[in-house]
Amino acid sequence: MENDHHQHHRHELNGDSTKPHAPKKPRLSLSSSFSSITEFEIRSEFSHHDPSIARINNGSFGCCPRSVTAAQMEWQTRFLAQPDAFYFNELKKGILHSRTIIKDLINADHVDEVSIVDNATTAAAIILQQIAWGFAGGKFRPGDAVLMLHYAYGSVKKSIEAYVTRAGGHVIEVPLPFPVNSEEEIISEFKKALERGKANGRKIRLAVIDHVTSMPCVVIPVKELVKICREEGVEQVFIDAAHGIGCTKVDMKEIGADYYASNLHKWFFCPPSIALLYCRKSPEILDLHHPVVSHEYGNGLAIESAWIGTRDYSPQLVVPSVVEFVNRFEGGIEGIKERNHEQVVKMGEMLANAWGTKLGCPPEMCASMIMIGLPTCLGISCEEDTMNLRTHLREQFGVEVPIYFRAPKNGETVSITGYARISHQVYNKEEDYIKFRNAVKQLVSDGFTCTLLSQ
Predict the structure, then answer these.
(1) What are φ and ψ of residue 383, in 5° steps?
(2) Cα 105 to Cα 327: distance, rounded to the nearest angstrom
(3) What whole-number distance in Å separates Cα of residue 25 and Cα of residue 370?
(4) pTM, whole model, 2 decimals?
(5) Of 82, 93, 268, 447, whose CB is crowded by the most CB atoms within 10 A?
């Protein structure tokens, strides 16, 4: 009998339900005439944030408004009230609804192309696991390659080491300049890395390309790089877009990658943790599996991912509530992205001017985050200095912001070695950035150097 239930829910999850009342397609944006949220309501939605902290680091963990956490608690309570009924009657139907919304958000062809997983790291494991099996099963030759950007996220680099290197694959890194002045610099380095990768008849089985790099942050011209991969015979392309949805433009038809992963808890206001994994329909999709094996194994990645054992699935179920929240803003999520970009550039330029430094990239190459050079007199000379300074800013000045160390290049005598990455989200105020500006100016005035924190 239980198998019959599972079969019924598999059909429903794939979008094959014959029920006459399918969920309404949500509006993903609203015109300004329907915008209704006020500044007071925004403050109320995020009143759980610590008021003593200038929280200009949305990029790390994201944020979740009170209306969405309330909806999450309702889902959790419904599960706890009657878990069996919830499992058989509500869970998979709710996840299908969320997947359908996500399909429309990213302009995918079909809901079957969209799976929901915990985070972008899980998505990377799913794709890289398939590559490892290709080596283990003899489909790939030892020495065939996976290409990644030098600024790939740390956990993705480790995943490539765990899945690809151990299986006998070769890893090619694309060195990227920073500061970066143009997309052409990135495209040029990418092309050169592809040539190196194909040397001696080696086949590049997968390219892992960030959409928005984390540290240092810059928007990568993914559409152009995917096109180059197609022209150069790269077998598959995976876009790691941890900062994609709600941060920059995401359109599967335009980008054209085989796989695309994006967190929804960073810039799309979901509670942690939830991410989408888009897999373009192809024969390779049949060999994709969630690394946590449950009784849905073999029924397709989307169904496998929708049940990996008893756990809290509420982050995956609140996507409709998030859409309701973003549609209270002028222009919906598109309007939020546009305003976040404008404000983060404005605040970044304000800080750079105040400190006599510069931005890490042109404004058009950032989305909702931007890098700003810190005064050289702070003496940032290693990764340890960045962590010590970040802690000092948090504990002594009430500012939460990540710091990046850029090692001087050969021949450089005077250069900026420390950069701050600021984010802008709807809850941020100009005072947050002024607080950061004044904290750094105070450190400079006091003759502070990072060596004082390592003694």
Answers:
(1) -60, -35
(2) 13
(3) 34
(4) 0.91
(5) 268
